[in-house]
Amino acid sequence: MTFAGWMTIILFAVVLTALAMPLGTYMSRVYTGKRVFLSPIFGGPERFLYAVLRVDPKREQDWKSYAKSLLIFSLAGWLLLYLILRTQNAFFVPHALNPLGYHSAPWNVTFNTTSSFLTNTNW
Hints:
By secondary structure, the chain is mainly alpha-helical.
């Protein structure tokens, strides 16, 4: 391995070590509901979203409500990704981003791709 390769590994380890304590403290404060420096920025939108979705942040989620949330979120994500992949040629795409002029894939390929992304399946 070259000198640059070793320096990259060492620099990566030093940066991870330096960030472990501040990020761990921040995450601990967020997960325990304590105020953090981003609370003034994201606190209002978070409370608004809770009100719109009728979520009580003080109440814990049981397995049934978690399963329901997971299924609804997964279905919504699947539908959105399928829609994007099926209609991507209808949107304006600059020639620089699609120089070969590819169009959307057929429905079966899009279905397979969307399902693969959703379930993290690797062929």
